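Hey,
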Amino acid sequence: MATPITGGTRAVVAHSAGDLRVEQRPVEQPRPDEAIIRIAYGGICGSDLHYWTHGAAGESILRDPMVLGHEVVGTVAVAAADGSGPEPGTAVAVHPATPGGSGARYPADRPNLSPACTYLGSAATRPHQDGAFAEYAVLPTRMLRVLPAAMPLRTAALIEPASVAWHAVSRAGDMKGARALVIGSGPIGALTIAVLKRAGAAEIIAVDLHEKPLDIARQLGATHTINARDAEAAASVEADVTIESSGSPKGLASALRGTMRGGRVIMLGLLPSGDQPVPISLAITRELELVGSFRFNNEIDEVIAALADGSLHIEPAITHEYPFEQALEAFSVAKDAQISGKVLLRF
């Protein structure tokens, strides 16, 4: 049976390092529990940039052409045949994870840690898991989250990365009245600041190398900002909780030095694989709690509710928007942290 969408779809496809194309792709015939989503916006993530620039994101190596994109929102074009999802015309956000796997042990209530969890737009497995930077995407209804009718889809494009930030802040514990330090104020760090503000942090100190992300951080709730080159200023913060979102050894070192004795460090930024040169002895002598934070689970529902009631303010994180046909220019801008925050593709 032919798909209800004729003529296929244009998509943003990474072929290899440095080779990004907008090309025609077929729209696959949906399974009974899958809907066809007309994508409205997609946010460019660091992993998308890594596939473009390096042909890999960490240990996930691009071996075949792959549609990028997992930070997407849109509307239902064709509902799932089994009736499990929303009706046509419904605005939806997308939870891009597919938990799974057996062997390694993990808590049942934390499916983000399942050993074979896959993500849209990921080369971790082969065949690769195509993403949703396309005019139309076929997605299982379990990934779909209905959005309030009044929520702008442009703002809703930040729901996925904001859920990553929400998960990290939840790992930090009660933040009411606390002093928080955020190392790295790129898009995820900026959204973490917004979530920290909503969580009631009394002080939020943002650190970054560039003025643009620090300006965004101030708009989202940072009470103080520090240039990362001023290592002494960052080390003197004595934060109750530090969230490291730069994903660099130097950032983690700054996090360890800037956290008060007995404090907690949330490791949100994904460090390169392998051994890292980090002054870990500080974690011992200061009795610091080092806590990992990876993706998210059902926090996406809390983010949607917080955006709907106005208690979470994230719009300033968006700095650029491009039609998807200009994907290469958009990716180039997103790569430059000196001039951009979150860059959106408009489909």
